[in-house]
């Protein structure tokens, strides 16, 4: 009789090591970080586009107001006069008011800040300014969005500095 000798089998692996788990967790976090950065960037861009569209709606309403009233609203009247007849300062002009010029009142921007309306504009050759102070809630910072973004001043020079976009960087 021949006897077969049984050799012990090596124990099969049934679990991951801690090192393998840490590597997988690290990869998942890295991928999640990349996705989050891309999503946040797209969200900020969409927010800015929405505010620019709101400013364009104000521009159209202000042009309609000017056609009927023969002037832009004063700074005291503000943008509210585009939907509220009671804000017209001169009672003789009330009969010409053909509004509302906007379907819905829009007193604040996307971030809850009051719109800034200046008449006359701070820029020579421009009738008025509409400004959203942006998400940082501070006027005069890089995230401000204005009705004059991309326009040229009376001297023909751009109102914004686009040197960051030039091929030489300056």
The rounded distance between the terminal residues' Cα atoms is 94 Å
CATH architecture: 2-Layer Sandwich
Top CATH class: Alpha Beta
Helix content: 25-40%
Q: Element order, helices and strands?
A: HEEE
Q: What fraction of residues sit in β-strands?
A: 5-15%
* Count of distinct structural domains: 1
Q: In one word, what is the shape?
A: rod-shaped
| Spatial strand sequence of the major β-sheet | 1-2-3
Report the total helices.
1
- Low-confidence segments, given as residue ranges, are 152-156, 161-166
CATH topology: Glycoprotein, Type 4 Pilin
If you compute it from the alpha carbons, what radius of gyration comes out, rounded to the nearest whole angstrom?
Answer: 30 Å
Question: Which structural class do the helices and strands define?
Answer: mainly alpha
Count of distinct strands: 3
Largest sheet: 3 strands, antiparallel
CATH superfamily: Glycoprotein, Type 4 Pilin
What is the residue-mean pLDDT, rounded to a whole number? 79
Describe this structure in words.
With 170 residues, the protein is mainly α. The chain has one domain: Glycoprotein, Type 4 Pilin (2-Layer Sandwich), CATH 3.30.700.10. 31% of the residues lie in helices and 5% in strands. The protein has 1 helix and 3 strands, in the order H-E-E-E. The chain has one helix at residues 18-69, and strands at 116-118, 129-132, 145-146. A 3-stranded antiparallel β-sheet has the order 1-2-3, covered by helices on one side. The longest helix has 52 residues, at 18-69. The chain is rod-shaped and about 120 Å long. The N and C termini lie far apart (94 Å).
